[in-house]
Every structure is written in structure tokens, then in C-alpha cells.
């Protein structure tokens, strides 16, 4: 770094052209760095401010958005009207679904968004806009290119019906990507889908229609009428959806999780879509059309089939990809997410044919995996040996075997979830940390025999690469009983060797408080911290004590956003 | 992005510079002689020179290889480094370019060779680090070499990444703004 002792006495100011400051700003990894860069001087500020506000994402809408709203509400007092720079807005849902529907905040988004002339991507993960808001937003942000909305069944929390979608279809001619999630499906009828089909015919690239089941008594009012009416309306919706698909053969991302008219829609997709790269289907009543879509799109890169009927053999989905592509050029499939599949022994042997796989998530029922424990691990080990490109892996791993295989054959692994790995030992974990130097996120879950011994070495060998670590909860529980488990040594090693650690979960509540206050501030980038309390009496007391002093912990860590105690 | 605008200026610039060489004999040899502003001369292959959009456009415009070409605004040291970079990367197919998305530009990692390359620049006869980096960045920007611009800006970003404002000001020798100015920025 600048060796001030050697500086010539009169050093001239180093100036960079505006475009180059912008290019540097693009490379900065976090907003905090960007902010300190922006505050260096006026020319730097002018170059950086656009990036600072370009993308807004708030994870807990209640408090975060309130701050943004206050800021945006008084532009004359600001040096720069930040709203000019906003291009992406993403409101995430912090809590699980049903709770969000019941307690969604009123963000009054439309008031702010009318003054954002460059907004092109609006992603809302919770129901915060209503029909009227959508109309206001669509008239003022006509350049919108991507929209994701959630509609709740109640008027109070942003209900979107046909009218809202019609307004967007009428006003936003540039739309390429659209994703609609809805709780009460009777709110959208064929009118909305016809409008979508006609407004952006031939131009849509992403179309996602998802039904979210929120369990709330008496809220999901399904339109009355007899069975015949229902069949008739389903037929009309199926026609409209088919029209969307037929008019947009260029769609590359499709997600269907829609309870009515799914079968004819999937059949239409199989007949006309040829450029698909990302496919997500949930609750499909019949695997045949899904397999037909897959067969028609051999260039598929990402496949997610969720809530699959477990009586159907999942291999029927993957076989078309294998037969469609010649042996010389293997399928480019790099992401596979199968949920609710209980046939590990039949599915796993197929995977070695997809050598391009980088993200693999197969979640069979936990019980099935545990029953076939040794078989699963053995098959998995042979599969992993031929998938050298793996980056993400989330599959039930129970013992050491697959971990050893990962260490020798998957050097690019970045995310590993071994939440079921009860039998994982220190030795395997140490091997893993040596063999997969890119590992940035590690979820240890129920590994009961993992102790300080390996965790310290993991911290030391992964070093700055490690960003998220879930400590094993089994060991944390035992630590409180006085047995060897996770002691402050692990935290010390993490604080010393892992400067980029962002999330640390399952820290035992029994860790001495003065040690915590000493070590946590040294983890400069930590933004998520979770403690783990056991069930016994000591843990209960420790939990009570820590609960009272949680505020002190928050104050000690500069960037800490979320901090809580797990049971 | 910004290279495009720059490129137009550059090609215009280039045309006027080489205009006088138009009438000289066009040789089909794939070598190009470059003379920097401090009178150092370099001979490079056409393929290497074409890593630079500036030279590439110039070669297209002149439909041939001009006689020794004077490169303004670039010092001998910088050009030597640029040629070193271009010779290594001229056969690469996945160089960073303007069409990359912001995220991929940010998440891309510096390769092993590039890392050594940057370390050597930093260690050049004990000069303050950032001067060399910035000098080369500007030269790369002038010659419009997307891959090198990416590498240099990334290295600068890495230099200032975890630092507080005061330290960044010290590195770039930016005068500390008056309190009034600072207050305005803080808002």
C-alpha cells in the first residue's frame, strides 16, 4: 500500500477520467466501499452516486423501506435526487409466506416510483402494490423491462386483479420479463392473460405464473358457481395461456406453478417452445408433457421440477435430454433442482452423463435418504467422482464418503449443504477444506462429532474465501453440557483467518459474553449472526442472559443487520 | 458503453494521424511499429495490436499497415506493459468485454498470470503503487483494450476496497474537501 515514507515531497493529485472512476466503482464488492469511495471528492461522488442507488434491495420492508421513503420524500434537501439513479428495485420478503400476507406493510411504493424515470426492473416478493398502484407505476415508468408482483387476496395488502395486469400491458411496451405470483387464483381471469399475450407478442423472454398457497381461513374466496362454470373458465384460461406461449416462441425462461389448466399449458409449451433455457414446473399432474418439453429443448440449462408426484420415476425427465444430445456434445444442463423425488438409487446413476452440471439440488424425503443411508452415500460418491464442475451441492449426505470424494474431485465447489450429515467426522471435514479451496458457504447442520479441532483448520485453510458458515447444531448442544464441542477457539480462528465472513449461524449461547464482545467486532463484514440455544436448563439460563445483552452485540458489530437466537 | 464513444474519437484521431502515410507503400506484413511519446519504439504483430480497439479500427480504416506510428499519450513503460499483456492474451476467447453484465464484470476473478502482472507493476522501482496502476489504466483506456481496463480497474478497486475515506484520499492525493463540501456530500 502507499508507502508514505517514500513519497516524493510534492506529490501531484492523481486524477482519473469520469468513465474510469465509474469502471472502478463497478468493481467494488459492497455498498459500504462504494459509499466511502463516493465521499472522497465531488468528481468521485458524481461518478459513483449512480451505482450507489442503481439497485435498491430491501430485505425487511418494514424498517428498510421506511428509511428509503423518508429519504426519497424530501429530494430538495438532498445534494442529488437519488431517485434519478434508481434502475432496479427489489423488495424481498423477510418472513415466510403466510405471515407476509397477513402482515404486509403499506409501502406506498407508487408515490416514490412515479419519480424514478429510469426504473427498469421492479421485483416485489411480497404483496405491496394494488391495482391502482400498478396503474400509477405503469403510467410513470413506461420503460419497465421486468416486473415481478405478488397479489394477495385481501384489499388491504395489495390485491392485483385483471385490471392491474391490463394497465401494465397497455402502458409498458418494453416488457420482456414478467412473473406473477398470486394467492387467490380466481382474481386473474383469461382477460389478463389475453392482454399479456397480445401486448408483448413475440417479445416476452420470461413468463412465470405461480400460485402461492397461503393458509388463511376464509380469505381465499374462490368465485362461486357450479362445476360447469369452473370447467368453462378453466378452458378459457387454458386458451389464453396457450395464446401467450404460441405468440412467444422466443421464451427462454418459463415457470409454471398454476393449479388450473396446467396440463394443456404444458402441452402447448411442448409443442411450440424451442429456445427454452430455464424451466421450472411445480405440481405437474402428469410427467409426460414435462418430459416432452424437455425433449423439445435439448439446450436446457436449468431444470427445476418441484412437488413431483413421487410415484413417477424421475428418470423419465432426464432420459430425453440424454437421447436428444449426441454422445460427442453432452447436454449443457448445468443446474438441476428436483424436489420431492424419493428415488435416489435410480436417479443418481444418470447424473454422470451431465458433465456440465454445476448446481445440483436433489431433495428426496429425509426418511428415504436415511433408510438407504449406506447405499445413498456409496452411489453419491461414484457420481461425484465424474462431476468435476460442481459449484453448488445440496443433496442428503450422511457420512464421510461423499465428502472425501468431493475433496478429491470437485475443486470448484462453492456451496455445500450437508445438513443431514450426522456421521461426518473431523477428518473428512479437514480433507474437504483442503480439497475445495473455493468453498464459500458451508452448512454443517447435524454433524454431531465435528469439533473445534476441524473447524479451526477449516477456518485457516479456507481463510478469506469463507463467507457463510452454519456451525453444527449437534456439537453446539453438547458444548453446553461441558463436553468437547465448539468453544471460543473456533470463533477466534474465524475472526483471525476469515475477514470476509458475512454470516455465522449456530454460535452456542454458552460462549462467554466477554469473548463474544472481543471477537465479533473483528469479523468486519459480518451481517448475519444467529445463536443456538439448547433445550436443557443451563442453556435456558444462558439464553435469557444473552437475550438481554443482544443489543450490545448489535452495537459491537458495525455491519450486523440480523441477529437472533435459535431454539 | 463508454468505450464506444471513445472509440469513435480515437478512430477519427487515428485517421488524421496516419493520413500522411496513406500514400506510402502498403505492405502485407503483419508487423506494426509503434513509437511512444518518449521516443521508444516497439514492433508488434498485427494480432497483438488488434487487442486494442484503437489500433484495430485504425488498421481497418487504413486498410493496411502504416509506417511507424506515433502513439500519443502513452509512455514507453506503459506500452511495454500493454504489449506484454496483449501478447499473453491475444489468443484468449473469453476476455472481459463491454457486453458483459455488471455482475459478471464484478464477479470475475483475476487469473494467475494477471495477478503476477499486476504485482510486477506495483513493484516497479518503489514508486507509489497507485501512480503506475493509474498510468497504465489511462493508457489502456486511451488505446481501448477492454480486458486490460477491466484488470486495472479491478486492481484499483482491490487497492481501495476495505479502506476508509481518509485513506483513499491519501492514496490518490485528493485534497480534503472543505467542511461545507463534505457536509453536502454526506447528505
Automatic annotation (TrEMBL), chain A:
InterPro entries: F-box-like_dom_sf, F-box_dom, Leu-rich_rpt_Cys-con_subtyp, LRR_dom_sf
Listed SUPFAM superfamilies: F-box domain, RNI-like
TM ranges: none
Highest taxon listed in the record's lineage: Eukaryota
GO biological process, one term: SCF-dependent proteasomal ubiquitin-dependent protein catabolic process
The species this protein was found in: Blyttiomyces helicus
Protein name per UniProt: F-box domain-containing protein
Short name of any one Pfam family annotated for the protein: F-box-like
Ranges for domain F-box: 15-58
Annotated GO CC locations: SCF ubiquitin ligase complex
SMART domains cross-referenced by the UniProt entry: LRR_CC (SM00367)
Lineage, broadest ranks: Eukaryota, Fungi, Fungi incertae sedis, Chytridiomycota, Chytridiomycota incertae sedis
Automatic annotation (TrEMBL), chain B:
Family: Belongs to the SKP1 family.
Highest taxon of the lineage: Eukaryota
Region named Disordered: 1-30
Cited function: Essential component of the SCF (SKP1-CUL1-F-box protein) E3 ubiquitin ligase complexes, which mediate the ubiquitination and subsequent proteasomal degradation of target proteins.
Known pathway: Protein modification; protein ubiquitination
Record-given protein name: E3 ubiquitin ligase complex SCF subunit
Segments passing through the bilayer: none
Signal peptide range in chain numbering: none
SKP1 component dimerisation domain span: 147-184
GO biological process: protein ubiquitination; ubiquitin-dependent protein catabolic process
Compositional bias per record (Polar residues), positions renumbered to this chain: 7-22
Keyword vocabulary terms for this entry: Ubl conjugation pathway
Summary of subunit composition and partner proteins: Component of the SCF (SKP1-CUL1-F-box protein) E3 ubiquitin ligase complexes.
Occurrences of domain SKP1 component POZ (ranges): 31-89
Amino acid at each position: 500500500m502507499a508507502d508514505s515514507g517514500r513519497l516524493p515531497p510534492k506529490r501531484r493529485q492523481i486524477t482519473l477520467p469520469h468513465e474510469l472512476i465509474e469502471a472502478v466503482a463497478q468493481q467494488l464488492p459492497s455498498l459500504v466501499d462504494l459509499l466511502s469511495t463516493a465521499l472522497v471528492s465531488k468528481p468521485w461522488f458524481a461518478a459513483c452516486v449512480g451505482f450507489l442507488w442503481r439497485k435498491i434491495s430491501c430485505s425487511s420492508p418494514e424498517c428498510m423501506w421506511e428509511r428509503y421513503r423518508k429519504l426519497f420524500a424530501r429530494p430538495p434537501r438532498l445534494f442529488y435526487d437519488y431517485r434519478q439513479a434508481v434502475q432496479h428495485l427489489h423488495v424481498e420478503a423477510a418472513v415466510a409466506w403466510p405471515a407476509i400476507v397477513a402482515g404486509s406493510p403499506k409501502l406506498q411504493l407508487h408515490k416514490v416510483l412515479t419519480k424514478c424515470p429510469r426504473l427498469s426492473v421492479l421485483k416485489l416478493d411480497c404483496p405491496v402494490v394494488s391495482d391502482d398502484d400498478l396503474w400509477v407505476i405503469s403510467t410513470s415508468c413506461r420503460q419497465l423491462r421486468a416486473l415481478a408482483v405478488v397479489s394477495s387476496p385481501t384489499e388491504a395488502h395489495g390485491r392485483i386483479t385483471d385490471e392491474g395486469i391490463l394497465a401494465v400491458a397497455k402502458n409498458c411496451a418494453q416488457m420482456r420479463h414478467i412473473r406473477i405470483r398470486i394467492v387467490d387464483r380466481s382474481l386473474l381471469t383469461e382477460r389478463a392473460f389475453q392482454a399479456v399475450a397480445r401486448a408483448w407478442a413475440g417479445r416476452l423472454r420470461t413468463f412465470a405464473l405461480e400460485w402461492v398457497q397461503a393458509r388463511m381461513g376464509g380469505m381465499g374466496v374462490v368465485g362461486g358457481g357450479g362445476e360447469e362454470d369452473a370447467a368453462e373458465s378453466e378452458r378459457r384460461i387454458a386458451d389464453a395461456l396457450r395464446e401467450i406461449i404460441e405468440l412467444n416462441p422466443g421464451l427462454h425462461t418459463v415457470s409454471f406453478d398454476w393449479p388450473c389448466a396446467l396440463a394443456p399449458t404444458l402441452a402447448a409449451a411442448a409443442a411450440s417452445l424451442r429456445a427454452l433455457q430455464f424451466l421450472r414446473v411445480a405440481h405437474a399432474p402428469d410427467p409426460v408433457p414435462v418430459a416432452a418439453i424437455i425433449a423439445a429443448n435439448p439446450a436446457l440449462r436449468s431444470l427445476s421440477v418441484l412437488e413431483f408426484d413421487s410415484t413417477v420415476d424421475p428418470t423419465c425427465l432426464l432420459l430425453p435430454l440424454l437421447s436428444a444430445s449426441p454422445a460427442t456434445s453432452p447436454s449443457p444442463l448445468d443446474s438441476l433442482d428436483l424436489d420431492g423425488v424419493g428415488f435416489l438409487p435410480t436417479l443418481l446413476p444418470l447424473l454422470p452423463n451431465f458433465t456440465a452440471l454445476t448446481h445440483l439440488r436433489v431433495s428426496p424425503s429425509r426418511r428415504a435418504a436415511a433408510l438407504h443411508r449406506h447405499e445413498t452415500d456409496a452411489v453419491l460418491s461414484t457420481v461425484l467422482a465424474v462431476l468435476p464442475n460442481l459449484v453448488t451441492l445440496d443433496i442428503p449426505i450422511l457420512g464421510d464418503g461423499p465428502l472425501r470424494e468431493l475433496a478429491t474431485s470437485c475443486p470448484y465447489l462453492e456451496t455445500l449443504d450437508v445438513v443431514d450429515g450426522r456421521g461426518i467426522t473431523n477428518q473428512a471435514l479437514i480433507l474437504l477444506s483442503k480439497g475445495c479451496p473455493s468453498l464459500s458457504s458451508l452448512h454443517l447442520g447435524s454433524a454431531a462429532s465435528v469439533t473445534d479441532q476441524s473447524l479451526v483448520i477449516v477456518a485457516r485453510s479456507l481463510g478469506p474465501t469463507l463467507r457463510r458458515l452454519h456451525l453444527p447444531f449437534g456439537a453446539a448442544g453438547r458444548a453446553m453440557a461441558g463436553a468437547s464441542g465448539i468453544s471460543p477457539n473456533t470463533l477466534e480462528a474465524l475472526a483471525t483467518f476469515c475477514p470476509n465472513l458475512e454470516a455465522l449461524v449456530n454460535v452456542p449461547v454458552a460462549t462467554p459474553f466477554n469473548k463474544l464482545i472481543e471477537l465479533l467486532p473483528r469479523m468486519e463484514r459480518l451481517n448475519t449472526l444467529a445463536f443456538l440455544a439448547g433445550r436443557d436448563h443451563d442453556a435456558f439460563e444462558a439464553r435469557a442472559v444473552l437475550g438481554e445483552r443482544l443489543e450490545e452485540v448489535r452495537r459491537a458489530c458495525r455491519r450486523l443487520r440480523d441477529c437472533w437466537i435459535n431454539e | 458503453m463508454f468505450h464506444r464513444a471513445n472509440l469513435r474519437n480515437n478512430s477519427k484521431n487515428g485517421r488524421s494521424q496516419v493520413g500522411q502515410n496513406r500514400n506510402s507503400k502498403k505492405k502485407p506484413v503483419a508487423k506494426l511499429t509503434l513509437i511512444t511519446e518518449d521516443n521508444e519504439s516497439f514492433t508488434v504483430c498485427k494480432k497483438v495490436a488488434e487487442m486494442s480497439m484503437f489500433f484495430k479500427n485504425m488498421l481497418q480504416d487504413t486498410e493496411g499497415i502504416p509506417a511507424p506510428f506515433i502513439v500519443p499519450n502513452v509512455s514507453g513503460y506503459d506500452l511495454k506493459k500493454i504489449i506484454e499483456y496483449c501478447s499473453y492474451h491475444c489468443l484468449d476467447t473469453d476476455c472481459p468485454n463491454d457486453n458483459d453484465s455488471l455482475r459478471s464484470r464484478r464477479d470475475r476473478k483475476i487469473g494467475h498470470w494477471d495477478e503476477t502482472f499486476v504485482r510486477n507493476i506495483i513493484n516497479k522501482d518503489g514508486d507509489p503503487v497507485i501512480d503506475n496502476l493509474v498510468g497504465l489504466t489511462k493508457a489502456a483506456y486511451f488505446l481501448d483494450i477492454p480486458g486490460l481496463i477491466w484488470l486495472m480497474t479491478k486492481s484499483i478497486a482491490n487497492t481501495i476496497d476495505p479502506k476508509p475515506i481518509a485513506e483513499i484520499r491519501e492514496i490518490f492525493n485528493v485534497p480534503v474537501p472543505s467542511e461545507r463540501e463534505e457536509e453536502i456530500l454526506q447528505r
